[in-house]
Amino acid sequence: MDNPKVEVKASPLGGKGVFAKERIEAGEVIAEWDGEIYPLDHPGWTEDLLNHVIQFERARFRDARGLARRINHSCEPNCGIKELFKVVAMRSIEPGEEITWDYEMTEDSEWWRMRCQCGKPRCRKIIGAYRSMPPEVRARYRGFISEWLTEAEEKSLPAVAL
Predict the structure, then answer these.
(1) Mean of the pLDDT values across residues 52-62?
(2) Distance (Å, rounded) from C-alpha 157 to C-alpha 58?
(3) pLDDT digit string (tens) for 93-144?
């Protein structure tokens, strides 16, 4: 489901991006990954597919049929991930503002990396695995990181003796 309040157009980040046509309120769903599911050992990986799927398990990825594929990364995003596949506004987004999310909110592979060009003051320069995300960034994004990562992280924390 793509939100009718957004459109695709040229992005200053490069290529195309998704932009608000109308004000979007915090919590609104912008787009979702609703396409084909691929295992890590899928024989038909292309650069385009690799760079546009969302990771939702250790070795499974999902594509989108709609706008989710076009949403660019930012190290200071206005959106995050809910229910594994939904891009949701983290705050109000004004008309003309580019819709962005931080790709480390879902990604935790050993092999995918990208050079960030967001230009934001908090830019981390290289984007890759969730485990590389600094603790203060994780805290800022709380509630908007894919649950497959946060649940795995909670399971790996040591038990606290009472």
Answers:
(1) 95
(2) 18
(3) 999 999 999 999 999 988 889 999 999 999 999 999 999 999 999 999 999 9
Q: And the tokens for 160?
A: 């606290």
- Residues ≥6 apart with Cβ < 8 Å to 13: 72, 73, 74, 98, 100, 117, 118, 119
Closest to 88 (Cα-Cα) out of 117, 66, 62, 68: 68
Beta bridge partners of 24: 93
Structure tokens of 138? 């994780």
Non-local CB neighbours of 12 within 8 Å, separated by 6+ positions: 98
The span from the CA of 53 to the CA of 36, in Å, is 9
Listed in sequence order, the residues at least 6 apart from 56 whose beta carbon sits closer than 8 Å to its beta carbon are 33, 62, 84, 85, 106, 146, 148
Q: Buried b / exposed e across 14-32, counting CB within 10 Å, b at 16+? A: eeebbbbeeebeeebbbbb
Helix and strand counts by DSSP (H, E) for the chain: 3, 12
Where does 6-154 sit in CATH, by number?
2.170.270.10
- What is the C-alpha separation between 132 and 130, in angstroms, rounded? 5
Amino acid identity, residue 47?
E
For the whole model, what pTM was predicted?
0.90
